[in-house]
Design brief:
By secondary structure, this protein is of the alpha/beta class. It has one domain (2-140): Alpha/Beta hydrolase fold, catalytic domain (Rossmann fold, 3-Layer(aba) Sandwich). It is 28% helix and 24% strand. The protein has a 6-stranded mixed sheet, sandwiched between helices. Strand 3 (21-26), helix 1 (38-46) and strand 4 (49-54) form a beta-alpha-beta unit.
């Protein structure tokens, strides 16, 4: 189903009992909500969770922003390494507001957040800026983006 969140249309899959423990799954860059394995979602529902997963903006069935241009990730990486500001039509903070908008559209005052990759970065934005909306935070394959952290090796 589509919901209006943060002024845009986002595709949402809402599973489990309406009064279940809310758990929002936030996927990474360019990935659709279907990247969360169906078996995983079903196991969470069977444990009493109300599982919400959604397509981020510019992914899957959610609203796209093609008219704003496609960022060049290689150049963005170089700019990051040189400590130059990124050029992007929107930021992680916008995507965090999208996630909160999904929660608002579904009437969720707070939820457990689980983020994978860029989704983990989005979840961290929410936890840092709106901690009252976060029951717990689970982060997978992600980073805070702090420049002082070790970078992945070329082999990785």
């Amino acid at each position: 189903m589509q919901v209006a969140a943060n002024g845009i249309a986002l595709e949402v899959d809402d599973r489990g009992p309406p009064d279940g423990i809310p758990l929002v799954l936030v996927m990474g860059l360019g990935m659709q909500l279907t990247a969360w394995p169906e078996e995983f979602v079903q196991q969470l529902v069977e444990r009493g969770f109300r599982v919400v997963r959604f397509d981020n903006r510019d992914a899957g069935l959610s609203q796209g922003f093609d008219a704003l241009g496609v960022p060049n990730l290689a150049i963005a990486g170089i700019r990051y390494a040189l400590r130059l500001p990124p050029r992007s039509p929107y930021r992680l903070a916008d995507m965090a507001a999208d996630t909160l908008g999904v929660m608002d559209a579904l009437g969720l005052a707070s939820a457990h957040l689980c983020g994978a990759s860029m989704g983990g970065m989005i979840a961290q934005h929410i936890a840092a800026r709106r901690p009252e909306r976060v029951r717990s935070l689970t982060l997978m394959m992600t980073t805070s983006g702090a420049r002082g952290l070790p970078q992945p090796t070329l082999r990785a």
